[in-house]
Amino acid sequence: MHIVRHALGVTGSHRGLGRPIGVLALAALAALTLAVGIGSVAVSPGELWAVATGQGEPLSRTLVLELRLPRALSAFATGGLLALAGALMQVLLRNPLADPYVLGLSGGAAVGALAAMLAGLGGALITGSAFAGALLSTLLVFGLAHGTGSWTPARLLLTGVVVAAGWGAVVTLMLAVSPVERLPGMLYWLMGDLAYARSPLLPSMLLVGVCLLAIPLGRSLNVLARGALQAAALGVAVRPLEWTIYLAASALTAMAVTTAGSIGFVGLVVPHMLRLVLGNDQRLILPACALAGGTLLVLADTLARTIIAPEQLPVGVITALLGVPTFLYLLYRSR
Amino acid sequence: MSRLEACELVIDVPGRGDGRALTLSLEPGQVWGVLGPNGAGKTTLLHTLAGLRAPRRGTVRLDGEPLAALSRRRVARALGLVFQERHDGFPATVRETALIGRHPWLSPWQMEGGEDVQLAEAALARLDVAHLGERLVNTLSGGERQRLAIATVLTQGPAIWLADEPTNHLDLHHQTAVMALLAEQAAEGRAVLMCLHDLNLAARWCDRVLLLYPDGEACWGPRDTMLVPSVLERLYGQRLATTTVDGAPVFVPVR
């Protein structure tokens, strides 16, 4: 692990924040280039350059600019949102197991989206309904965990797990009563699929916005990671900060789920892997999560649509198949 | 330098009567020792004085202003806390941990600079843990972690120290070194209030003593009027033998 830390220029703690970010940004660029070049019709690097500079064949232009680039950017934004949401939740609960899925946020969003589909609604209404579902889940989990006073991370995590299980049951119920012809779309959506992604603009803006918010909050988050009392003693206004994190993570999750459905493991695996390599300074980890999560999902989506082309796999299957062994291996190695 | 006052303060220990309200002032240069049996509310008192818990009644004032009206940041610049219990969520190194003591002094956009690192290094050296700088905190021994917690508050540099059993887990040499450090802080014009279980440390290093009883009763005053064997025997429900070493009383429990 030390070799990796040295390679990324992270020998101490808070020095050299720029270098790992630079490496990850290059990786992200490479992944995006790969994603727009690969597919049913390959686009050569020379042709890509031509398109990027405003020339190139009309067919290549359509393929790259209207089909592949929006999807790749959506994938990037979604992956970044999920990883960032996971990292924030983990600081909030001082628990590396926390992520939007474990805490029931994704479940709430999924129920919202499915309910809208079942009611025959479409487009923006599904998005809005999913968003409402995620926020409802937020309020439910935080409200119930708050209860009559103590608001311990363990209690919050447990409440989230139970609420998530409840949403899972509701999803199953909805699928059971759905008309058969609607099932494939719903199922695909539940496993996470970027084929339905629309404009990457909103998710990208949210991703950049939360990353910018994380810069001034980063050191407070570092202190909060050491416990609420310790943070308060060191001058952090704990309750407002905790609400900010939870609301930000809810918005990130809701946006991610409405863009691409339920994609698991990104929020859990990416922050954990980065912490093993880069340490625990949130000022570094949060932007790194955005970049690495985005890169991972772009690559996973490229795999999902090429591995058995012309058929497409749900990208959530790929992230789980990649994520589970990687996670277990890292966990095994780190102890 | 700062002053911390408790005015008619009743700490909130669930299921206990009000007992005696505390009205006292922690002045620059003073070293207070809080003594009492397990469950008397020493930690609760410390957290209440730091504004981390709401009192049942009364107020705590920092330089005349009610603590509850001040921002946590303002409070953290004046007041440092050594906790008795510590939990580490994510792995962090000893140096990173000491450095978070600078948090209240830095603006949100500021990174820790060379000066902050120097302060942290000096504090680590003062507590004899500088050689552990790159070690992960969860690999340290109990005594090393205790010294790191004190080094973190030293890095914070508050005018008022509230320390919850600062000699916990420490060997005899480091117990004395930590008490000497706190006494030195007071001599430089800071104020120190600490919870202690060791009567002999209190007798040697504190100039004022607050006795807390399990029913909420309390009394406080100069050390020599408080550390009376008959009073202490009632406080702990334990018979004591007393002798004198180096001019300070030494209390030993007898069977």
From TrEMBL, chain A:
Keywords: Cell membrane, Membrane, Transmembrane, Transmembrane helix, Transport. GO terms for molecular function: transmembrane transporter activity. The chain crosses the membrane at residues 21-43, 72-93, 100-119, 125-144, 156-177, 197-216, 247-272, 284-307, 313-332. It is found in: Cell membrane. It is a multi-pass membrane protein. The keyword Cell membrane applies. GO terms for cellular component: plasma membrane. Pfam families: FecCD (PF01032). Belongs to the binding-protein-dependent transport system permease family. FecCD subfamily. This is Iron complex transport system permease protein.
UniProtKB/TrEMBL annotation, chain B:
SUPFAM superfamilies: P-loop containing nucleoside triphosphate hydrolases (SSF52540). Transmembrane segments: none annotated. Residues 4-239 form the ABC transporter domain. PANTHER family: ABC TRANSPORTER ATP-BINDING PROTEIN, HEMIN IMPORT ATP-BINDING PROTEIN HMUV. It comes from Billgrantia gudaonensis. This is Iron complex transport system ATP-binding protein. Keywords: ATP-binding, Nucleotide-binding. InterPro entries: AAA+_ATPase (IPR003593), ABC_transporter-like_ATP-bd (IPR003439), ABC_transporter-like_CS (IPR017871), P-loop_NTPase (IPR027417). The keyword Signal does not apply.
